[in-house]
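Posted in: Protein Modeling Q&A

I'm a second-year student putting together a small comparison for a lab meeting, and my supervisor asked me to include a predicted structure for Nose resistant-to-fluoxetine protein N-terminal domain-containing protein. I've never done this before, so apologies if this is the wrong subforum. The sequence is pasted below exactly as I got it from our records. If anyone can share the structure token output, I'd also love a short note on what stands out.
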Amino acid sequence: ALRTGGNDTQALLTSALQALGNGGNSAQSPMASLQQVLGALQNAGQTLASAASRVSPQCREDLYSYQTSLQSRQLWALQMLDASGKPRAGLLKGQRTFVGDYDECMEIVGQPSPGHVVKGHYCGLAVSANFTALGLAAVGPLLSPLIVHVCVPHSCNNTDLFTVFQPVVNLTNGLGKLEVAYCTEEIDGDPTEDSAFWIAIGVMAFLALLCSTGTVYGVVHDWRTAAETQTERPMEEEKNGHVNVHVNAAFDDEGHRPNGDTPVLTKVLTSNGNTPSHDAAADTFTVVNGRPAEQRNSRKREDGVCSRLLLSFSVLKNGSKLLSCHQTQGELSCLHGIRVLSITWVVLGHAFTMQAAAGIGVLGNAGDTYKVFDRWTMGAILSGTLSVDTFFLLSGCLTAYLFLRQTKKAGGVTCFNMIMYYVHRFWRLTPLYMFAIAVYVGVTPYLGSGPFQFPIRDRSNCRHYWWQNLLYVNNVLDLENMCFGHSWYLADDMQFYFVAPLVVVPWALGHRAVGMVVSCLFVLTQLITAPVLSHIYEAHSFFINNGDYMKYVYFPPWTRAGPFAIGLMLGYALYSYNRKFRMQKMSVFLGWLLAVAVGLTCVYVNYDDIEGISKTFVPNWSIDEAAVYEGFSRPAWACAVAWVIFACCTGYGGFVNTLLSWRAWAPLSRLTYGVYLFHLVIFYVMMANLREPFYLSAWNVTEFFLALTVLSYLVSFVASLLVESPTLGVEKILLGGAGRKK
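Accepted answer (user: helix_wrangler)
Welcome! Here is the predicted structure, written out as tokens:
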């Protein structure tokens, strides 16, 4: 077929595409036409004579052996042909990927001649067609590019593949263009030759060794402590007195502890060695048998720094803290529920939207994408980005609330406390963040093996641009080469935290008006920049965007500062009123009514933009209307959630507070940071192991979402035991109480 003239090949392709556009009413069916085109591609070895000088010698020899073995009907050659992709039903539904049999291809071991072994190599070709020139512009979004999976000899690499098939596509005289040629094994490669792999494995092995050693040491340490306690008990039982010792409030645990940190001193002692008691009239401890608490805990303080550092890696101790449902007095317990629900919303949104945009030809029904989202119930998915604004709100609230409480304890703002303000934040976020990137770059490429193991750009970018993430500037610097794409949020959050003292320090010094003015300026910045930039770059929305939306509207901190600033004001209000604020019933009712109305509007109003989009493929809102929504929806949503938090923390939350403060949320809440970091890492691994295109439907994505959520929490738990909990323990030991101040 390939030895026909260029005009004949062009006529063949034109006939096939026109048949698709006419719904199969041509004399030749679209399937038959496309099979002829594919047949031409599969027999491209016949054109090798003209391209032989540009193909590697071993590939040329193996392709020739493949062709001759196919003619002689040898089994391995037939399997190689059989494992290559063919057209399938659903082309007009967007089934543009001709998927082969990955496992059959990779299992092929042929021997065309003694000592000459040919193995299978699974590759893909992305071919774009000029549908506009054919008068079939409407078909273009569904079928461009066409993805053809081919099984070729293992000796042929990406360059060889491109060299062989490019002349075939060129025969269409400009109607087609070979965009990409890739092979799955060249994406994951050989891990033993990958320095990133060894770095990641080395770090994980070192952490596993520390945790194993710390766990064993902790068990022995506890056993020895228990044995000594048993030895001392007979002598202690000769005494029966007790005294009351006042405890300085500075040692009491305070505020909301996002990571479930335990207080330095625990208000539980025993009067007779068996039952706990606490003197409620005075903030005192009842001390057992005349022994002060410091004597009973003397062993803990006698442990050296090295001993305590090793104990901070104990899996048993850290695991019990992570899984604890205990909540302390004064804790903003409703934040646990809000945090868990928000991260679940993030994962759900990514499960839907990333499926729709994932990879080269992953979807088997790309044409149904708009149809799936063309229903009002999908408003929660399309508005899923508001969940990120909830996290900005929580971050601002805790930043102000805890900073003001700590500066009050310290007697004012000091240089040391300000230094520790930044040191703690960097230490809190960075170790697990860098660990996640190391796993993403060094390990995950080798966890996937399938026809959809395609190149992931942000993963390859990390090999050269990881330092931008370490400095938290990846949201504004060199966005085309962003590493670990969803980490833009961490950069925004760190930058907000960096400038937050412009607000909280004046508040701590008693200058309320200054802090309020700066906070309002932050909100005003978003209200101006977000819609203006949306208009300038015609960036319609997250769901329908031209690429500039993410770069100029979604990532930059100046377009996302509003919720964080509102969170700062919320934290200041909770601190100022000491979580005690009196409101009339009517005020409470109106507050809840307004919050619910604003929240539902922010979530579901954008359905008006996409209603009917499955038929028109064009959004209903103009650029200016979309810009207004972009500018005002996020601060409005933050205000609605801020009311929920304020009402719950001041006693006006009712059943909502009961739900959000459920103790079972606490362990899940401590893992949300890890879930955010790892859920897309797991997503890509799951995609890489698919054997068939993913069929986009609400039910399929729901199943995928549930699996993704469970796996994300499991991985987050393990990562927290290996990295997050130990590093926080190390910080407390090395920096003392300063490490606990936010």
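A couple of things worth pointing out for your meeting: The longest strand covers residues 116-129. DSSP finds 33 helices and nine strands in the chain.
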